[in-house]
Amino acid sequence: MSDTRAPATAGAIWGDESERRSALDPRQLPDTRHEFTVVGGEWQNLPDAVDDDLMVINMGPQHPSTHGVLRMVLTLDGEIVVDNRPVIGYLHTGIEKNAEYRPWTHSVTFVTRMDYLSPLFNELAYCLAVEKLLGISDDVPERASALRVLLCELNRIASHLVWLATGGLELGSVSAMIYGFREREGILDILEHVTGLRMNHAYFRPGGVSQDVPMDFRERVEVLLTEMPRRIDEFEALLSENPIWVERNTGVGILTREQCFDLGVTGPVLRSAGVAHDLRKAAPYCGIEQYDFDVPTTDTCDAFGRYTIRIQEMRESLKIVRQVLDTLPGGPVMVADPKIAWPAQLALGPDGIGNAKEYIGKIMGQSMEALIHHFKLVTEGFTVPEGQVYVPVESPRGELGYHVTSSGTNKPYRVHVRDPSFIHIGVLPVMSRGLLIADIIAAVASLDPVMGGVDR
Amino acid sequence: MTEVRPTGAGPNRSTEDMSAGEGAKMRDLDVELAVQLDDRLARLRDHLVAAFPGLEVSGFRGELTLVAEPAQLVDLLAFSRDDPEVRCEFLADLSGVHWPGGPRVESAQETTGWPSYATGDEQGRIEVDYILYSYTHNHRFRVRVSVPDDAARLPTATAVYSSADLMEREAWDMFGVVFEGHPNLERILMPEDWQGHPQRKDYPLGGVEVMYKGKTVPPPDERHY
Known about the structure:
The complex is a heterodimer.
Chain A: H1 10-23, H2 47-52, E1 55-59, E2 71-77, E3 80-87, H3 95-99, H4 107-111, H5 119-134, H6 142-170, H7 174-195, E4 204-205, E5 208-209, H8 217-239, H9 243-249, H10 257-263, H11 268-271, H12 279-282, H13 303-327, E6 346-349, E7 352-355, H14 357-366, H15 368-379, E8 387-395, E9 398-406, E10 414-418, H16 420-425, H17 428-432, H18 437-447, H19 451-455
Antiparallel strand pairs in A: 1-2, 2-3, 4-5, 6-7, 8-9, 9-10
Helix pairs in contact in A: 5-6, 6-7, 6-13, 6-18, 7-8, 8-13, 13-18, 14-15
Chain B: H1 20-33, H2 39-51, E1 56-60, E2 63-68, H3 73-82, E3 90-99, E4 104-108, E5 115-118, E6 125-134, E7 139-148, E8 153-155, H4 164-175, E9 178-180, E10 208-209, E11 216-217
Parallel strand pairs in B: 2-7, 8-9
Antiparallel strand pairs in B: 1-2, 3-6, 4-5, 6-7, 10-11
């Protein structure tokens, strides 16, 4: 900016810059070995390109096939990737820190915004962690647990459908994108009908769920259960035999079993390496052990294997939904302890959903104590015994763990989220070495990272 | 050594300065809180304590925690990975908790909501927790190391578990824990030129300016709700 000469062309600008750079004494330059900033320019002027024939290019954060705002700094030898350094943090919103300054129940609305494609799993893991700290894990009513399982499995299907849609789009299959988002809407409609929101539901609460499901919930899920298997078959018919889909996914993004262990990879990616590990089987939660389902695996270790696993997982999830719906117990949906149970006598009024008229009448007109109790529970919340727990659940992407610390007050002392997407980003350097640029797209898509969960 | 000492993550609570009645009450509470470890975790605990005699063991809600010295951390992790009885192939999580020095809020009073303060340690600490999981044996436990918060240095675990790479970068970014020997200890979530480590409790929060007569919404830790 301080340069007063007005360069005539863009070429002159780049020329000036390289001249200025070469005039500097390299020993006086700051250490830039770990700096990710890449300055553009005429490639023959860039010292890197002349010296060793390697080129560094940025892929993202605005690239349409990097699943949001993932930025990859690729070192290329021609079109072959020599190194891939992911740069993340563009969506960092400090949710973990925010949670430390709100009462325990309020944080549900925060954590549901982390991994926005599987919001219910975030809520589930957080609520299970708080319940474990409180020591009320066994007191959560059966109906609440069953509803949690049911809605989470619906959410898993929706998440896998988005993966199919975006993954398909990235490899050129626009039909997969259209179909994937279309089917997902059907599931989101049900979730909206139950929770009020398509995403970021804040439906699970420590102690249960915020309210019971509507009267026509069963019918709507029945409709979905009859429709969805046919739709999944349609997907398989569309993609499994498609030569482009098969060729671009087979043998791409190889991760062996040992690499998966070492790199902390979980979920469908681990199962594509032949490890039949699923936390729903290994450490069952919410009574999921009483439902019959399989853990699909393959031993192809590649992107195509992950595709087949996700397709089969959707069918397994439908199996679970079917069983939960058939055996859905009645009863309350929140723990009996009024010191923990959020006041949730909700009803639909002319201006949307809110506290039921009878409840408002009681706390405002009849019982002073009820009003005080309501006020204190909503503003101050409940205290949680001092301690630390780690609760993992099997999210659509792998092990989603909540590491929650309490110091004995009404707010979390520390909430750390082990998000599978974050761990999977660390796999990229290993996974993409030696691939072509086009294969990077398929490899990243097969990991299914969600940047909201990566950056938190 | 092998007794199960209940506590959670709190600073080492000393019962000396309490009255006898309160101390007894606290111990009762501890006994109540301590959920017995199941047989498998109890065997695992005995096995690990036999190999590393200096470990302090605690259990809370059925989770096993081993408190190790920073010097023995890498050996313990390598042992946990390679020993056939332990065989933890998977480092599930690595995270920190900051316990600053000086008084801290211990509880809010039932009736008024006013906080009561407990005397914490003189020296602030950062606890770093490693969650290890074994696919072979299906068990999970926590290794905890504690470092002073003004000179937080730990040996890196990247030589044992490659997955520690990103997690240690996050711990450095958020808590300022230096992992010696880490191949690329850079900020990961915050921008490269960021000052300070946001997850520490002494990190200033800052309020929000509102466009009304120069008013400011105070930072969350100073709001009265």
